[in-house]
């Protein structure tokens, strides 16, 4: 699939949007957790804030799919659509060229197919909690990519509906979720190591 500059620019903007919202949400959750620890009269109520955060990140995840759809569902340069169902064939063919650089359309396609779903993966990772968020986000990216590849062929857009594109898109979504998990893990670790306020009195 051809990668257009406008789609890449939109993807970068979506990534920045997801990052800004992620930082704001993490700070908000950290503040709420700190206030809940410091208060002895009020029980923590994380449900409402978590639900609101999931709604925001769901909207950002959908926004991050816009550049991906603009790029993948535009007309290609081929005369007719075709299917490439052999895994890793296009990836290995492109990687076999020693003079491959960013001016080569194959290199741009490989890198672009990964990067275009990184913003989606970064935003969608906040929709799930737990250790399997990367797996769930990757599966969501794979399903969405597969639907797009089928649509390319059905709509006769003159593109190659390739299983390699699905693999690369899945890797991009998983990469975005992995980066978020690493970042939130470090943020949580720093928050847990902060000194807690001492409580006076209470001697026996």
Would you kindly provide a written description of the structure presented here, covering whatever features stand out?
- The protein has 204 residues and is mainly alpha-helical.
- The protein contains seven helices and two strands.
- The protein has helices at 5-38, 46-72, 89-95, 105-115, 118-124, 133-154, 163-192, and strands at residues 82-84, 160-162.
- The protein has a two-stranded parallel ribbon with strand order 1-2.
- It is elongated, with a radius of gyration of 21 Å.
- The relative contact order is 0.17.
- Mean pLDDT is 75; it is low at 40-48.
Biggest sheet details: 2 strands, parallel
SSE string:
HHEHHHHEH
Radius of gyration: 21 Å
- How many individual β-strands? 2
Identify the strand order in the major beta sheet: 1-2
Strand content range: under 5%
Number of helices: 7
The best one-word shape is elongated
Indicate the low-confidence ranges by residue numbers.
40-48
Layout of strands and helices, then pairs:
Layout: H1 5-38, H2 46-72, E1 82-84, H3 89-95, H4 105-115, H5 118-124, H6 133-154, E2 160-162, H7 163-192
Helix pairs in contact: 1-2, 1-5, 2-5, 4-7, 5-7, 6-7
């Amino acid at each position: 699939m051809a990668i257009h500059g406008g789609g890449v620019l939109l993807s970068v903007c979506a990534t920045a949007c997801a990052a800004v919202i992620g930082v704001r949400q993490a700070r908000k959750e950290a503040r709420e957790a700190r206030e809940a620890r410091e208060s002895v009269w009020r029980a923590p109520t994380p449900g409402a804030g978590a639900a609101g955060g999931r709604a925001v990140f769901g909207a950002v995840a959908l926004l991050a799919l816009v550049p991906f759809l603009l790029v993948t569902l535009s007309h290609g340069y081929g005369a007719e659509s075709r299917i490439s169902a052999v895994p890793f064939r296009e990836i290995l063919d492109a990687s076999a060229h020693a003079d491959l650089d960013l001016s080569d359309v194959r290199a741009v396609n490989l890198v672009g197919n990964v990067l275009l779903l990184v913003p989606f993966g970064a935003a969608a990772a906040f929709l799930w909690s737990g250790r399997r968020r990367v797996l769930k986000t990757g599966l969501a990216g794979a399903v969405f990519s597969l639907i797009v590849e089928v649509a390319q062929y059905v709509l006769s857009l003159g593109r190659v509906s390739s299983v390699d594109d699905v693999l690369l898109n899945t890797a991009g979504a998983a990469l975005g979720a992995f980066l978020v998990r690493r970042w939130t893990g470090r943020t949580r670790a720093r928050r847990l190591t902060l000194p807690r306020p001492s409580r006076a009195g209470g001697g026996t």
